[in-house]
Amino acid sequence: MDRKFYATKIALIVAVGGFTLGHWILAISGAIPFLREHFHQVPDLEVWIGVVTASLAIGCMAGTLTAGFLSDRFGRKKVLLATALLLSVGGICCAIAPSLIFLLVARIIGAIAIGWGLVIAPMYISEIAPTERRGQLGMINQVALMIGISAASFINWGVLSLFNTYQWPYQWRWMLGLVAVPGFLYFILLFLIPESPRWLAIKGKAEQALAIFTNIGGQEYAAGQLRSIQESAETEQSTSIFQLFKGKLFTILLIGIAIGALQQLIGINAIYYYAPDFFERIGGSRNTAFLQACIIGIANIVFALLAMRLIDRIGRKSLLVIGIIGIIICHMVVGFSFMSANYSIDDESIAKLKTNVNAEVIGKIEPLKDQLYTSKKAYSDDLASRLTEDEFNNNKLNILKSTVKLNGIVILIAIVSFVAMFSMSLGPVTWVLLSELYPNQFRAKAISIAGFFNGLASFIVPLLFPWELENIGEAATFFIFAAIAFVGFLFILWKIPETKGKSLEEIQAALMTKS
Fold this sequence. Notes:
Structural class: mainly alpha
CATH superfamily of the largest domain: MFS general substrate transporter like domains
Radius of gyration: 24 Å
CATH topology of the largest domain: Growth Hormone, Chain: A
Low-confidence stretches: none
Shape: elongated
Oligomer: single chain
CATH architecture of the largest domain: Up-down Bundle
Order of helices and strands: HHHHHHHHHHHHHHEHHHHEHHHHH
Number of domains: 2
Number of strands: 2
Mean pLDDT: 85
């Protein structure tokens, strides 16, 4: 087999897992409106929706925190097999969930596997990839993750259209359950890949490691790789996790934690999870909102592929800088667009209201006709004063989305551009970079810790996003995201090293000797 294709084949198989993770992550976005309808009698339903949605991050934190220790103990390949199995089982359990509690547990099961996959897959690829192709091969998995995220939007829209056409129930069960299909395929394909040669070398299985390195780059390459790994291992006094919290290792660990958290704190999962719901809020129909989420999916794929072409040419740091500048601009545009929004009831909005609000409620708010509100809070207060508490709570979202006046096209373009900038920078590059920063003996443990904080941020952002929209408003929410991105921009310029064109051992030596 051609050696170049051998490494590519391994990366492509691992990338099936990336696709499955992406599909898992975004499948919930299409299910949210139907979960509201199916479980409408559950007390504190919105709280439950937020918890079920954010539970993915809870499981991810558990998965990322344990991934390094498990992969160091049992090997990268065995943990990837367990990942595929849990993704399949979790998807089936989501599809058959009889209650929100059952659904919550099923999502946490799948999310643990996602945490393992997010940490182990890029690390595994970095450990088998030749130096000159490590960024590109690592990006295959990250691009596949983006494709999976995008595919989830199209699958959700397809399920919605098909089920609406034939008036079938339980759309949400199919949206969540279909993730089991690529998970099962991933499980089967993983039997075709070898164990990580660097893990084998560290465990004293030099002959097995040498054979795999030979398949990747030939005998001379294999001998050189094995020699570098053994020389690197000799310089490490201890592989205890406590060593990570001392000296230069601790500095590198903090860099990884910061970039991992930044990836989520800029708000990407708020958009991924709530895209259809968010686009409905700015006046779109449900079908249109799902189509707009698909546009985000296309941007995801196109710019992730662009990043794969560029990462080994212009470098990791350059992509991060370009992307974070674009993200700041996009958040500012969305924020100012919402600042200029206003609300009014007119003939056009009344016609919209008649499709989803009963006549009695419309009659009660019709005296507000032709009054212009520049404050969402003032408008909501006037609506609340004319309706009963139940009428207000049950109809508020429909009234607001039918009567808001804003430039939805500008917001759509800015949101799509934000996703595009993320997909060519922080989205894929973060995990490639994390897989490169740490010494061989500490790599799995360090990425697990950085991944935990990535998961923690991923939990906080989508959990708070609905509350922020409701209590501080859309404009303030996106200005906060912009401010976080600006801090991230300064951090990237100051602290992120360029790893392009260097072997993992060369990166380790440079970071450990840097003053």
